[in-house]
Amino acid sequence: MGWTVRDIPDLKGRTAVVTGANSGLGFVTARELARRGARVVLACHSQQRGQAALERLLDEVPEARAELKLLDLADLASVRSFAADWGERRLDLLINNAGLMAVPHARTADGFEMQFGVNHLGHFALTGLLVHRLLASPGARVVTVSSLLHLLANIDLDDLNSQRRYRRWVAYGRSKTANLLFTHELARRLRGRQVVAAAVHPGYADTALHTRGARLAGSAWQERLAALGSRLLAAPPEIGATPSLYAATAPRVSPDSFTGPSVLGARTLRGGPGGPWRAPWTRNDVTAARLWHASEELTGVYWDALKSAD
After folding, report:
1. What are the protein's UniProt keywords (predicted)?
2. 211 lies in some domain
3. Does residue 215 fall inside a structural domain?
């Protein structure tokens, strides 16, 4: 039998931030961390949905220590406000879970292509603004949720915001490749420190992520097809969140590891979390460094706490 949530160790005294914790994988991740004693912050875009998620979590885990804080990853002012409000509080686990998939073309508040802006740049900035708190907690971890669909596209360093041409699935693949390149470079910069940067993919999990893009595009038949596929083939969120929970809490998780379902099958995660195939371009040192520097320039977050590793 492989690793399961029952193997999560006692997390009392640990503090976790989970982005996009109002539903799906993020909610399950936050709930299970809280169930093991961690103090959990649900970092959510919507006050209404976030409050509903917090109430649901407290109903399912009455002893949980959990709170809601607003965070809009599509607005760097919101990211900075979240980090400033965090202050000098302890931080042990940062789960970069929130994301968009295959949505119609749009721009963030700062003018970035929406999927690249939310999935990568928002989390890049958030992690950079909180990294000093992670460095102060030996054994801290940064877990970033990527996807096997990073295989759709390598990053285009000359067109990070898809200005030449926007194809929503290609843009999604690029943003998920960016997640892996970010993890690769962050792991390099953290070398010799007691913080682990790891990436995960959830497999095909039944969440609202699959239908949102079609709904925003106004395609009813695509939305129905996505909903049907999720119902028939996708694993429940409890299974999809397992790789994130493993990367956040299991012993001996390697820096720059990529954890996902060891065997992909209909509604199964046989064998527990394992090491899925990863595109070679996501381990390219030169590309990862160039994306890092471009991300610093775009966000204005320069990671001073890790400057000595540059």
Report:
1. Oxidoreductase
2. no
3. no
What's the CA gap between 235 and 88, in Å, rounded? 38
Q: Coil, strand, or helix at residue 70?
A: strand
Q: Which domain holds residue 196?
A: 9-205+235-300
> What percent of the chain lies above the pLDDT cut of 90?
77
Alpha helix positions (H), 190-309: 209-216, 220-233, 237-240, 242-249, 285-299
Phi, psi angle pair for 18, to nearest 5° = -120, 115
The count of other CB atoms within 10 Å of the CB of residue 62 is: 7
Q: Which of 166, 172, 204, 302 is catalytic?
A: 172
Q: What is the pLDDT of residues 123-182, one digit of tens each?
A: 999 999 999 999 999 999 999 999 989 999 999 999 999 999 999 999 999 999 999 999
302 is catalytic: no
Cα(251)–Cα(164) distance, rounded to whole angstroms? 44
Closest CA to 3 of 256, 197, 247: 247
Q: How many CA atoms lie within 13 A of 196 on its CB side?
A: 20
